[in-house]
Known about the structure:
heterodimer; A: alpha/beta; FAD/NAD(P)-binding domain; 4 domains; five-stranded parallel beta sheet; elongated; B: alpha/beta; Rossmann fold
Amino acid sequence: METPVRTGIYFCNCGTNISEKIDCAEVRRLVENMPGFAYFKSQDFLCSETGATAMETDIRENRPDRVVVAACSVRDHEETFRAVLGRAGLNPYLMQMVNIREHIAWVTEDKRRATGKAAGYIRAAMARVALHEPLEKEMIDICPDVLVIGAGPAGLKAALTLAEAGRKVCLVEKGPVLGGMPVKYEEVFPRMECGPCLLEPVLGEALHGPQAGNLEILTLAEVTEVIGFYGNFTATIRQEPRYISPELCIACAECIAPCPVAAENPFNFGLNRKKAVDFPFLGALPNLPFIDPHSCLRTTRNEECHLCRDACPVEGAVNLGDAPKVVSRQVGAIVAATGAEAYDCAKLPNLGYGRLKDVYTSLEFERILAASGPTAGALVKADGQPPRRIAIIHCVGSLDPNHVPYCSGVCCENAFKFNSLIAHKVPGAEVTHFFKEIAVAGKEESALLEKARSRNSTRMIRFDDISQLTVSADGDGVLAVTRERVNGKPKQAEFDMIVLCPALVPSKGTGAVAQLLELDTDEHGFLEELHGRMDSARSKVRGIYLAGTCQGPMDIQKAVNQGLAASGYVLSGLVPGRQLAIEPVTAAVDARRCSGCRTCISVCPYKAITFDTAADAAAVNRVLCLGCGTCVAACPNAAIKGNHFTNEEIYAEIEQVLS
Amino acid sequence: MSTQTAALDRVEGAGAGFEPRIVGFLCNWCSYAGADKAGTSQLKYPPNVSVVRVMCTGRIDPQFVLKAFEQGADGVIILGCHPGDCHYKEQNYRAIQRHRILLRLLCQLGIEVERCRLDFVSAAEGEAFARIMAEMTEAIKKLGPLNRAAG
């Protein structure tokens, strides 16, 4: 056997908490014949300042190679005693702590057996600690800048907060306009504020505020590749051409009228038509038009049209030669705020959506109500007449095992908000709510339901299952909702307009970003949080944070708060001038032993292991590894070492713990 | 299970004073904290289980369990976070998978499956921890010492 290391043992009496149940002298007798035994010292309160200082002096004087501390829970004081070792000039990881208080003294009746068990624990710790290796925290340089993906309320708030703190932020938005879903809303529950107005202060600050210089906003842009890890990501972003220069355009709108195209307006869900060059909507920010390549004659028919450029009073503001740009940005953290979208109502064909006139989704209905919408805010049917009888069908696709099983939690508030808007636009119109469940909680939100109910023109009808409802139309454009009933004949009611309130589901962009960033998604396709309650703005991948409806349905308030929470993590985790300390209790691959089976990669929950083709072996990223050790146990070739929990250390502990 | 008959035979041989030796593999975050909770609640339980702490039950190589039996353990208990509560997301499910396979191997080695229990204790469940310690000790007492000649 090799020359054993010299191990010093510190036994804490914890006043009498430990010494009352464990015979210190007897423990000493039972462990002093262990190889490597150097000395055994007891203290009344080892964790106290007096105790810790005495221990530090003692280590300096006696120079042990290893230390065993027999005291309380590792969870209470391992860091305390590691720090003592550090101060005494010994590597903090050359210590093993055993819990003889919570795990023995306080729970064992028989003093003799408690004493024997404590001795076994100390012997096991001695055997184990002899094999410990000195470990160092690795310090790495970080980039404090941030990439935010998605410019809805959550992404905007995160980006603005970070920019205001002096961070350089790159905000990437797929669409031509900022603001996400709420910019489509005429009024937002619960206080009936106009959607774009609600966002205006945030957008104004982001675009023109004192810290706007810290914020790079890329619209019509998508992240195409991300490499690297926490503190050091490199993102590649592709920006589609806008054909209108943000620097030169003065937003005079002269270019719009001459455009010969009249295409479906995607912002209004095709409810009206727009030119190929236009503002996304009136009041859109950034305040400049863009040319939609899906409708412009230059791209759709390859025609040499340049009427817009001819009309533009500013030389170069219309740039028909604009081309896609690919840019690369260095960032330390990423906030994913890619949003949600409405469930496709056409998946419930019994409701007639897409087939029958005047059957709309709640989002389309928002546009019909909106002053900037296709009817300039007039609530009218397709024939231009105001609807007198409106049915609002809740829970479309929600709470339904055939569609999505959850309640989106925001559609009811929105639906009852419509009551007020309808009453304002078409006084006296009757509104009938068909619902499976009603969910309106909150100090302001529940009043929406009460207010809707209090109107004489409101009716509430509950259904068991949405398949019981059938929407049909007669030749005169009158709609009917037929409701089958378990007991009794089907009931039918006539309406002029039907509004469907679909569930919120992850947006297509959310799925794409999940793939790109290797983020886990939940059973519904939403991005999964590190912990749904305690860490709901963090993903499982270090340095990637989540905000808004990409995590699950939520209202604007919560989405904005998630954006703030995500920026809080970035601000506290990545501090300019401060290095990132990497804990050394991680896994490490011995490339020579690795057979390349990649089992470890499949079991790692943090995407910390990749396959290094050059070395023909798996490699652990120490920044991402959190040291659970699952890969160590999974490796069929014992090629992975779990630092501080090596096989040899654990075997040594097992050998002695029963002694 | 065929090994049960053999086990019953051995109970005859187990003396009344038999105190089983059991190794308990505890994850740092839930079950070790659950044991701490039992301690701070001063709940008394038999001292037969000796604890080996790992960060996560996902770290537990089935060979650790075999090593414990080889070193004289009459039983082994693995305690982790409840399914869905793992500090490392889902690694306790790996432990469950490995435990299932391990039980089949133990059968082949003639070690009763009851000698290797897997269970879950949260950081709040001090009482459950103490109860499981007592149950495990009682179960192994009934089985008697591990007949190493058969293994």
